[in-house]
Model the fold of this input.
Amino acid sequence: MHAMQYRLTLPADYDMEIIRRRVARKGHLLDDWEGLGLKAYLVRERGVHGSPVNQYAPFYLWNTVTGMNSFLWGGPFQGIADDFGRPPVRQWTGLAYEEGGAAGSPARVAVLRHQHVPDGAPLTDMAAEAVRESGRLACEDGAVLAASAVDTSRWELIHFSLWENDTPKADGDMYEVLHLSEPGRDRLPG
Done:
């Protein structure tokens, strides 16, 4: 499993309805994308859920690198680059994925938390802690799913979770989910 995200931080007075209409018009295009586990179309609005910015920041869990590369190098990502400029794309190697108790419910919000891996920390222990955190989040009331991944170029863990309600039991940046494409969610490794 591979995690991926790019973030488009927009002006403070940007009309976020433009992004909502874009997702309503184009979100379905990845509903059957080969190699994609899931894509959560995420937004943050300045002043909502404590967000300091307006941001479009989709988050992906890929089953295959081939699917990810075909998206980035010849697929729909070109539309983002054409319309907004080419943003940096962050990538992480997956460590854990768990379906939550609310797995059959629509996801309303997502939470993403970044965690630095301290120098000198036993890497085996940090990986095991990330796996436990995914399991803990998945067991919380309202959890749709939880995943953890690592970027070894920065020694950074991420904890990603989707929730059926606006009161997630997770710390981190909160996003609204506009659409969820999940053609290979059932094949994401646990």
Notes: The two ends are 9 Å apart (CA to CA). The domain at 2-187 is CATH 3.30.70.100 (Alpha-Beta Plaits). The chain is about 25% helix and 35% strand. The mean pLDDT is 97.
